[in-house]
Description:
It is built from 4 helices and 4 strands; from the N terminus they run αααββββα. With about 130 residues, it is of the alpha+beta class. It folds into 2 domains: about 30-55 and about 105-134; about 60-105. Helix 3 (about 30-50) packs antiparallel against helix 4 (about 110-134).
Amino acid sequence: MRNKLLLVISITSILNAQDLPTTIQEVINTNPVILERLKNYNSIKEDITSAESGYYPKLDISIGAGYENSRRKDYAGVTTLSDHQNNPINKLGLGVYQNALTYTQNLFNGFATTYKVKQQEHRTASAAYSYVEK
């Protein structure tokens, strides 16, 4: 009887067993410490791209629109604004529109971009070692 029970237990444990690669993959996909380190590594790896952007030119556009309400008097208190017929007016409303297109190319900044890229690469290597560490 005891041998039969031992045989049944060993057969059920063999049938429920997982192979090693499946078990390892399940642990990697579900362990919160490993997932945190992987996300940390991926975010630091993206910082390399951000540091390399210093090599490229930048094109900035700015657009603004609004309304300006002006009241102007000189030091004697006399209104200095006038309409088209030179009649003095106390306040003036103006539509304001602004736009600008700026192109910036980095010529030399004391090797700052080069060292930023190297720094981010070393941070990425450190995060990779932290990911594999424990």
